[in-house]
Structure formats: C-alpha cells, structure tokens
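Might I ask for a little of your time on a matter of protein folding? What I wish to show you is a protein chain and, alongside it, a tokenised description of its three-dimensional fold. I should value your view on which stretches of the chain appear to form regular backbone elements. You will find the record immediately after this paragraph:
***
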Amino acid sequence: MARARYKDVVDELAADISEGRIVPGTRLPTHRELAAQKGIALVTATRVYAELAAMGLVSGEAGRGTFVRETSLSPRAALGQRAFADDVVDLNFNYPSVPGQADMLRNALRALASSGDLESQLSYRSHGGRPHERASVALHLEERGISVRADQVLLVSGAQHGLAITALAMLQPGDVVAVDALTYPGFKVLAQVHRLELVPIPAGVDGPDLDALARVCAKRKVRAIYTIPTMHNPLGWVMPEESRRRLIAIARDHDILLIEDGAYSYLADPAPAPLAARAPESTVYVSGLSKSVAPGLRFGFVVSPTRFIETLERAIHATTWNTPGLTIAIATGWLDDGTVSRLEADKRADARRRQVIAREVLDGLGFVGHPSSYLLWLPLPGEARADQVAAALMRENVSVSTPETFATTKTPPNAIRLALGSVPLDALAQSLETVKRVIDEQTW
C-alpha cells in the first residue's frame, strides 16, 4: 500500500511539472510539508523527491530547498538535441586541438601505409598489447615520474576503458569506494553499472578532506579509493605533497586499493610524482591520450602491480579483446617520435592562455581552478541557480555542465563547470562574457 501511494505522488508531481502546472524555478514544499500535504511518511516524501531528481525534474540545493528544474535541459535532452549542435558554443566538453593536428594524422597514416607492419594490424594480438608497444608507453611514463617495466603496462581503448576494466577486475558489486564529493562523471557511470557504493569525501581547494577520509576508512570496509590527485576534474587542484603522503598512508593502514586517474596530469608543469610512483604495490594508474592528443584516438594505458596484471588482462579479453592495432600503431608512433610530448607542451601553453582570458572576463566571480587547467568550477552567487543559468545559456547557444553531473552527494552544490578547451581561442572571451552576463541577469 505504501509503495502504491509513493508511486501515485511521484506520478502526480511528475505530470504537474511536465505539463507546466508547476513551472520551472518553483520552490517545492519541504519534505515535512509534502508528507503532511499528501498524508505520507517523512521518509516516503524524501523518496518521492529522490525519484523526481533521478528523473531530472527537480534539484535539491543545500540550505535552499527543492526546485523544479528547467525540464528542457535534462542531461539527456541537452546532449541529444542541442549540446553537440554546430551552432552551440561548447563549454561543456574538452577536446582541445592545436594547429596542425590533422596534418600530423595524415602523415602518420602515410607512414603506416608505407611500413611493413600493415598486415599485423589486421590480426588478433595479445590482450594488453605487444611487448614493444607496451615499452613505448613505459618510456613515456618515465617522463611522468613512473618507472615501470613494460609488462606492468596494459594498452586499452581510452582511459575510460582503463577505469572500466579496473572496476571489472578489482571490484565486486556492493564494494565500497571512497570518492571525492565532486568527481569525474565517467567513474560515477561505472559505479552505477557495476553496482558499487560510492562514499563521498568532502573536499577543499587543494584536495579531499583526509581527516574525513580516515574516519570513513576506519568505520567502513572501503575496498578502493578513486582519486584524481593531479589536475582534478572538475576542481582543477594539484594535491600537495604532504596530502599525497597521508592519502597513501591511509590506504596502506586499511589495505585499500588506490585507483589513480591521470587523464589531465600532463597539464601540470612541473607535476608532482604520481601516487603510482610512491605506492606502486597498491596503486592502479589509469591515463590515456584523449585529453593530451585527441578524444577520437581511443588509446589509454593502465599501470598495475604485477600481481593484478593477469586479472586485468582477462577484463580486457572480456570487453574488447584488444585495442585496435591501427590505433596502437598511430599512438605508439607518436609516443616514440616525440609528437605526444610536443602536443602536451603546446596544450599546456594553450591552457594557460585560456585561463588568463577566463580570469580576466570572470573577474569578481568566485571561480575555482588551476592556472594551467582547461577547467573552471564556478559557484553561483546570490539566487542564481545552476539549472536556470544553464538553460538560459543554452538559449544563447552556449552549453555548460551542471553540478549533478559531478556530484556524488545527494545534494549537489549550486555551481556550473566551464570547459575552456573546445572553443576557438579568439572566440573564448566573447563566450565567457555571455556566461557572466547571464549569471548577472539571474542574480538578484
């Protein structure tokens, strides 16, 4: 009976919102008020709002209440209908490109076509890559401060695939994973699919609250910690040395696996030593070339303690069998001839230029970000609400990320994320001026 009543209330409110009887921006009754109005238990009212939030119809904001979202801007609708349209300025996704990358690809394909290794690209190969290909990545990793043998490196189809095989191989449904309260959305999706329990850890300006992490690890059986210590997404921090040492100590004290995401770490110069260099016995390091070279080059790598390699290889076997040979040939060729290192240097300089522009245009707003990052986290002032700001920007043909994408807490902060890497450099200032104007219009 209680379940039927709960579904009735959800359906009633969802219909009122979808059909416009409750308009976007409306503050809904408190959980206690809803319970009294509908004759349901307080816990049932909480469940009703959670269901509406999962449907993309409402958003809860700490200390402010529950509001009806701009329903035209549900994440799926935005992605499917507008966010990738040609006339939309994309401050939602990062796919930075520097001049000449298309020519680099043409030259690489010509070189590959004239080489004697073409036939092997059409064959099956070992799941984690051939020894000389893994050696190319190992050499590249030395530049990042990770000294590993080639047989500790596995080649995968992008960093997301690397995270997926790590979850598949190392974690079981129901396992507890500690994560930042704001984190990379791709790991959230993996957790949902693999039925992992994510425990959010509060964060400051330069990393997670390690006291809070220590308390969680003391109380719960935490199986893994997923962390982005260098160039965090979305907050852009580079975790200080002392924090890195303490994070490793917590993991060692409780025998916890560290999953280190290094996707944006190439932007840090100089970069601190990765966790995998400090705690190689308990860290799986995942990165790739999607951010530093191009997202269409689905090439990533996983660095693991030797004892996990066989299990991880089975996960590659179960998902893709192996990374496509043509992709590996292009990627390792660019690693070997220095192309990747040159592109990373060019993009570090490009990111710094873009941050200078962003900080000038958005001066006066309390943004969070690293001066070499392609990301800015922008807490919203006054009464401006993230979903309404994002909807207003979409009407101006500007796409941004809203906070629930990154939040692992039930109530996301009131903020938007700006990805600075995809807009042409000469158009970035104008795009950000639109963002600032819309925020000003939404603030009172």
Observations:
- Residues 2-69 form a domain with the Arc Repressor Mutant, subunit A fold (CATH 1.10.10.10).
